[in-house]
TrEMBL record:
InterPro entries, alphabetized: FBPase_C_dom (IPR044015), FBPase_class-1 (IPR000146), FBPase_N (IPR033391), FBPtase (IPR028343), Fructose_bisphosphatase_AS (IPR020548)
Native source species: Paracoccus sediminis
GO biological process, one term: sucrose biosynthetic process
Binding site for Mg(2+) 2: D109, D112, E269
Self-association state and partner proteins as the record states: Homotetramer.
Class in the EC hierarchy, top level: hydrolase
EC code: 3.1.3.11
Protein name: Fructose-1,6-bisphosphatase class 1
Binding site for Mg(2+) 1: E90, D109, I111
Iron-sulfur is among the record's keywords: no
Length: 326
């Protein structure tokens, strides 16, 4: 590894020293240990084959790439060894039974942002942990006891919460372990960076279109502030960036066919994001209520999602709630 003039030994406690104990902590450790092989395969690109090869279609109609399916099976094996009872994955239509006597269930998106596989854009994975229960995954986000994510970019990072704040670790190749780099992340209530897909603006509700107009007016407009725009096309990448630098993200419902109820998955995308963001002092909403109160009707339910800095999210929700004229 290149050494910079001010470099020294790696610092930060090892994840194996920070995350101790059984139950959800042990499952989070197992998920973290499973990430380096995924990052290594991403880094290899097309050297051994094409990770973007289309190999199927998942339950929500997205085309599955080879890496999607490979990551799914890789994580299923890791969760089986960790004693997990059941898994809900974006890449499987039905719940997967692993260990009948297991005390915990896991919902996961094995590769989030897979549309960007092979082009160097941020990718990652998302997961949440719930106590085993007869109703399985058809529970509100209030049932989530732990959640986390991995971010694969120019570094490999791992964030998690056991309900005691949100923490972030970075991969130390020399130690072959993650090291804690951010403990008890706290989001500032205000932010100057907003992430959304501007190409969809014309399909949004009138209130949101007014918000965009006021946003673009900058310091001279009603919001009296100049904002920066970001769009990584991967919710997990936006989550990681917002936890590190602040900001807000929105992927609202719109009037296009198939987008009226949003497009992100409630159980294994929105719920873990909401848990992590709220543990960091932020807010996560579907536009009408906090994500943690949403109860999925189906395993792969979709939802609008707005999350990030508390005041910025509340401002967006205020515009969204404006009555439609006429």
């Amino acid at each position: 590894m290149l050494k910079l003039p001010n470099d020294g030994p790696a610092t930060g406690r090892l994840l194996s020293q920070v995350l101790t104990g059984d139950g959800p902590a042990a499952i989070v450790r197992a998920i973290a240990r499973a990430q380096p092989p995924l990052m290594a395969r991403l880094a290899a690109g097309r050297l051994h084959g094409d990770p973007t090869e289309i190999v199927g279609v998942n339950d929500t109609g997205d085309r599955q790439k080879a890496l999607d399916v490979g990551a799914h099976h890789h994580m299923i094996a890791a969760l089986r060894r960790a004693g997990v009872r059941q898994v809900l994955s974006e890449e499987a239509e039905a719940v997967i039974d692993l260990n009948p006597d297991g005390a915990w269930d896991v919902a996961m998106d094995p590769i989030d942002g897979s549309g960007s596989i092979g082009i160097g854009a941020p990718l990652g994975m998302l997961f949440s942990i719930l106590p085993a229960a007869p109703e399985g995954f058809l529970r509100t986000g209030e049932s989530v006891v732990a959640a986390g994510y991995a971010s694969f970019g120019h570094s490999m990072d791992f964030g998690w919460s056991l309900g005691d704040g949100t923490h972030i670790a970075g991969w130390d190749a020399e130690a072959q372990d993650f090291r804690l780099v951010r403990e008890n992340v706290t989001l500032k209530p205000k932010a100057s960076t907003i992430a959304y897909n501007a190409s969809n603006e014309r399909h949004w509700a009138p209130g949101l279109q007014r918000w965009v107009a006021d946003l673009r007016a900058g310091r001279d407009g009603p919001l009296a502030k100049t904002y920066n725009m970001r769009w990584l096309a991967a919710a997990v990448g936006e989550l990681h960036r917002i936890l590190l630098n602040g900001g807000a993200f929105l992927y609202p419902a719109d009037n296009r066919p198939g987008y009226g109820k949003g497009k992100l998955r409630l159980v294994y995308e929105a719920m873990p994001i909401a848990f992590l963001i709220e543990q960091a002092g932020g807010r996560a909403s579907d536009g009408a209520q906090p994500i943690r109160y949403r109860k999925p009707l189906t395993l792969h339910d979709m939802t609008p999602l707005i999350f990030g800095a508390k005041d910025e999210v509340e401002t967006i929700l205020g515009y969204l709630a404006e009555p439609t004229e006429g």
